[in-house]
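Lab meeting prep.
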Amino acid sequence: MRGTILSLLFLFAVLPGSPVRADSAEQIRNGAGDALSFLRDNIDGAGELMDRAAAVLVFPDVVKLGFGVGGEYGEGVLLVAGEPAGYYATSGAAFGLPPGSGVKSEVVVFVSDAALQAFLERRSWRVGEGGLVVANPSSTASGDQAVGYIFAETGLVPNLSLDGAKITRLAR
């Protein structure tokens, strides 16, 4: 009994004082605007690709989780013609930034309506499976692909891929 009480006291001591909350839709949209501005201003060709895209899925703040093994999580918005068309979460096992970096942004540009429709037909996707293939920005996107950008405040992060990330629609 004494061990249980001590365990509970320990948990209350280490848990945050206020509940952890997900970002609001407004916070996600604002972060998405900042991420897209950064992408347009700093990555050659990104603006032109986004201008002719069917939609853009933006995860402005993908954060590293856990200690040691870790993972990642972020919330984002799907923009169709610049307007929010749904909210999504991304999660994965590997974070993929150099030590000391805790936040990155991920953007998926749906090059065609066919790519967007294939994405919208499911509630949850694992990138690289089930038809959702996200090409690196350096490759040439065909009409039915999506192009993925991963970047931090220092710019595009080379040699990272979105493969294996799980993208799930959120109710907002």
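Slide two material, second protein:
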Amino acid sequence: MTLKAVKEKNEFLEWVKVIGIALLFAVGIRMFILTPIVVDGASMMPTVEDGDKVIVNKIGPKLTEYNRFDVIVFEAKEDTNYIKRIIGIPGDHIAYENDELFINGERYEEPYLEEYKKALLDNDTLTGDFTLEENLGETTVPDGTFFVLGDNRRDSTDSRDPRVGFVSEEKILGTAKIVFLPLDNLKIIK
């Protein structure tokens, strides 16, 4: 083998190594840190719309904790993930009255719903009255679980439905932080 052939072979092997490491790095990031998902449905409108592609941060919340009003993606059923907003954390008592959120008896603002409330043509409420006791038979959100709602309260299957109920922390894939496609919807999720 000539010196030139040996150099070409070594250069080829170096490129294979670099490409292999890059692929492993990309797969690792996608599997363990950030992953894109496509939103299917209108339950989080206007925050996130049907067909939007969002980036889910899988590792951040696992290092800290999930907070009230985080938008999360969780496994609802086998092979079915939902995207919703955390409203209640463990120990919270949740109630809605006259389209206003009450957590532990204190009224909370939901600025992410203002645009949707203004768009209601029938001047009715966006979120119907309910309490945890009425919907799920609990007085507070149990330990290790969260109470979640879609921002499109009139068209969302969420914790108000006993088939979904409280979301176990183990079922949460991560927080949705960024809409990256389509480009005209590019934004940070608040």
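Talking points for slide two:
The first helix runs from residue 3 to 32.
The longest strand covers residues 172-181.
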